[in-house]
Amino acid sequence: MEEVYQVFDLDPQEATALEAYMKEYFDRILKKLKEIEYEKNKAKAKTQKKSFFR
Questions:
Q1: Burial 8-36 (b: 16+ CB within 10 A, else e)
Q2: pLDDT at 29 over 90
């Protein structure tokens, strides 16, 4: 990997920071997807409860 840094004239410390940024970014996306799925399931359960008592 060191050779890649030299060829593209990159600082290895910046690449590590980019990895951390990407991890945080995807962690946020996954968290939001889980929230959306939870809300979807909650709405579905609420709809099912309503139809049960009709």
A1: eeeeeeeeeeeeeeeeeeeeeeeeeeeee
A2: yes
